[in-house]
Write a structure and sequence with these properties.
Layout lengths: L5 E6 L14 H15 L4 E6 L7 H5 L5 H25 L4 E5 L8 E2 L2 H9 L3 E5 L9 H11 L4 E6 L20 E3 H7 L6 H10 L3 E5 L5 H6 L6 E4 L1
Parallel strand pairs: 1-2, 1-6, 2-5, 3-4, 3-5, 6-8, 7-9
Antiparallel strand pairs: 8-9
Helix pairs in contact: 1-3, 5-7, 6-7
């Protein structure tokens, strides 16, 4: 039994660093691919958005003198590199997948549209959506909210390195306590940094639940799909 039929899985670029300081840790990448295939084999339809912070983050580039628009475009390209890496890892274990991009870059990936993505999902392909929204000034958090709504996902699963949402950063504050569930409005009011405000507001307005969990522990994705309460649910 699965709790969700179609999911949008949001992965951070930083998570692909693994034990490295830069780029893609192949061990972590393969671990993610294994978890994704495990869930796909359960019949769950999976859309994926990956950040690019392990390679280049547009906003950080602005602070170093990059033009903001060009910096964001560089960040979009970084997400496509990560998308291709995950696609290759899925290919290696026999999982059908397709890379769609928000900016035209055939033959690297097909240009995204909702109906193409849903058709691929219905055909059992994992759909990896790169290049964010295709526009500057938007984060991949907003890109994942947008794509989750467009593909009509049941939930956005936000894979992080912590096991949910806390009152403060649990890596910095040992007194931080975990929420079992929380409303979008409270996330925004408390400024909890789960996602940027525009992404959270988009999910709230379109009633797309967000589930935050630790993706770095093998088997956790399957546990979430099976309905185990190992993270934090954000809802209206």
């Amino acid at each position: 039994m699965t709790k969700f039929k179609r999911i949008l899985l949001k992965l951070s670029g930083e998570s692909l660093l693994g034990e490295q300081g830069y780029g893609i840790d192949v061990k972590r990448l393969n671990q993610y691919a294994k978890q994704i295939k495990e869930v796909a084999d359960m019949g769950v339809q999976i859309g994926i958005v990956i950040g690019g912070g392990n390679i280049f983050r547009g906003l950080a580039g602005t602070g170093k003198g990059f033009d903001r628009v060009k910096g964001d475009q560089m960040g979009m390209c970084a997400t496509v590199i990560n998308a291709l890496g995950l696609s290759s890892a899925l290919d290696a274990i026999g999982q059908k997948n397709r890379v769609l991009t928000a900016i035209r870059m055939e033959p690297v990936g097909e240009f995204f549209n909702k109906w193409k993505a849903i058709e691929a999902l219905n055909n059992g392909e994992v759909v990896i959506m790169g290049a964010g929204t295709g526009s500057p000034y938007f984060t991949t958090d907003t890109g994942s909210s947008l794509r989750g709504i467009e593909i009509e996902a049941d939930v956005m699963l936000k894979g992080t390195r912590v096991d949910g949402i806390y009152t403060a950063d649990p890596e910095k504050d040992p007194t931080a306590t975990k929420f079992h569930d929380i409303t979008y409005a409270e996330v925004i009011a408390r400024d909890l940094k789960v996602m940027d405000i525009s992404a959270t507001a988009m999910c709230m307005q379109n009633n797309l639940p967000i589930y935050v969990f630790n993706m770095d522990i093998e088997g956790n994705l399957k546990k979430v799909i099976a309905g185990e309460e190992i993270g934090t649910l954000v809802h209206n």
